[in-house]
């Protein structure tokens, strides 16, 4: 489910910043929040070379529970990301929608993806 291109994963394994954001959204904002998160993730991955992956999912049983797997090239890329206009728009625009946020720093065990899905063959 949470994937990075294999070439990037092996080349940057020591420096990558990986985390999972666990977010609980107020039910009345769910549709609006999902749209804002999707737009933000698309903009960040497209515009920022240091943002390797932002993959957001929600729990089918508890749809207000959202998880985002975040992968950055390194800490510097993450810090740069936090200052971008698209991140600030997302963060400030969704503050009232988020009931809780937990950021979990993680380390890779195995992150695999089929090359045809990344464009790397």
Task: Describe the structure in your own words.
This is Antibiotic biosynthesis monooxygenase. GO terms for molecular function: monooxygenase activity. InterPro entries: ABM_dom, AI-2_Isomerase_LsrG, Dimeric_a/b-barrel. This protein has five helices and four strands. Strands 2-3-1-4 form a four-stranded antiparallel beta sheet. It is α+β, with helices and mostly antiparallel strands and 121 residues long. Helix 2 (30-47) packs antiparallel against helix 4. Strand 2 and strand 3 form a beta hairpin.
Short description:
Helix content is 37%, strand content 28%. The chain has 121 residues and is α+β, with helices and mostly antiparallel strands. β2 (51-58) and β3 (65-72) form a beta hairpin.
Unreliable parts: none
In angstroms, what separates the terminal alpha carbons? 20 Å
Instruction: Note the run of SSEs as H and E.
Output: HEHEEHHEH
The assigned structural class equals alpha+beta
Our estimate of the beta-strand percent is 25-35%
Biggest sheet record: 4 strands, antiparallel
Q: Total domains, how many?
A: 1
Helix content: 25-40%
CATH topology, which one? Alpha-Beta Plaits
CATH architecture, by name, is: 2-Layer Sandwich
Spatial order of strands in the largest sheet: 2-3-1-4
Query: What is the alpha-carbon Rg in Å?
Result: 15 Å
CATH class: Alpha Beta
Number of helices, where a helix is a run of at least 4 consecutive DSSP H or I residues: 5
Query: What's the count of strands?
Result: 4
Shape descriptor: globular
């Amino acid at each position: 489910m949470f994937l990075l291109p294999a070439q990037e994963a092996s080349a940057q394994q020591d420096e990558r910043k990986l985390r999972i954001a666990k977010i609980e959204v107020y039910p009345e904002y769910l549709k609006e929040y999902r749209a804002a998160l999707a737009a933000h993730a698309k903009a960040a991955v497209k515009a920022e070379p240091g943002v390797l992956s932002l993959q957001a999912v929600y729990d089918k049983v508890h749809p207000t529970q959202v998880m985002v797997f975040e992968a950055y090239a390194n800490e510097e890329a993450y810090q740069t990301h936090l200052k971008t206009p698209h991140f600030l728009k997302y963060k400030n625009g969704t503050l009232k929608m988020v009931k809780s946020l937990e950021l979990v720093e993680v380390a890779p065990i195995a992150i695999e993806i089929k090359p045809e899905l990344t464009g790397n063959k």
